[in-house]
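Appendix B. Chain record.
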Amino acid sequence: MAPGRLLGLVCAFAFVCSCLSPVAAGEDDDGYAMFVSIDETKVSIISGNLTVAVTRDWPRLVFWHSVDPFSPTFEVGFPKMYLFNDTDGDGRFCRAEAVYTVFLDSNHVEWNLSSVQSDFDDDMGEFVMFSMRARADAYVSTLEESLAVESWANVTFWFCIAEGATTYENPVGAHSLSGKTDAFVNMTVEVTNRTEFQSLAVERFLQGGGSTDEFHILEDGPEGGVSAVLSGRVDESVGDEDFARPLNGTDSPTQCVEFSKGDGTVQAFYRWGSEAADRSGLVPGIHMNSTCFTTGVGLMLHSSLPLGNGTASFSHDSSIGILEEGFVGAMTDWVRENALAVAVVAAAAAAVAVVVLHIALRRRRLHGRSREDGVRKDGG
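Structure tokens predicted for this chain:
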């Protein structure tokens, strides 16, 4: 083989291998940085290896690993709340009990975005904090355009991402968020136009991307065991509109849903407080009972709480985040498990590159000879 052709083969093989090898995901404390951008549709934050986009049309967090090229996209959204009668007395919500629906999308409410504060704190380090606020109406559940209670409540969502680990408290106890890779969410509801219904359910929709389509239910929070493994690809609501999988109560400050691959690799999570704080101070805490079901594309999670007499005001914390080990291990395994495939594809690509190079060189020689023949003819 000619030296030029051998050099081309080696270069092509090296280039293809460099393209196919995944980039190692890791956390470099010295290289940590936080970036914020704001446009008409979202607030985007890059916090080291975590990237989060908070949409402005309704409270929703879309997040992924900043560095891992194979990272799926995760989503946690707050589309609705329901006012309902707890007809079976179990303290939990099922959709048949809903009487009024409080839609949180921009077709029904106008969200006002606060200024986005980006600063440094001795405890939190670099941090970003902002809020969304809206006045929400209640609609007859079966008729989306049938307004039932105007200006039912003021609803506010606070979002915060910090460089340092942070501790938050709810009526059950303290719970910690890791720095850089976790995001804090606080929802505050102030009922300004009371109804006769004494129960409220908060709806969240969770979705994982790619092959991360399983959900691990941890009733006792991140320190507890997995009580159920659910596939987001299964639609548990088909033919049974009232289906609701109950989550047992817990003494832990939080309960948790993990986003997992089919092999059990957990890559992200959503955690929520097992109790809400009564902002009126009349009761020490408001216990929240949760239910869930899968939809075929994700997981629907409802947490219900009783509303007291008179104007109700409560605050509820939750958080999202990624787990670094779910990405580092996956990428290391990818290289090991697919080494043969990488080599085969790289060799095939290198062979194609050599053929293309050979054709190009041959055309160049033929073109050069044609020019020389033309010059000779003109000279003759």
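Further analysis of this model is presented in Appendix C.
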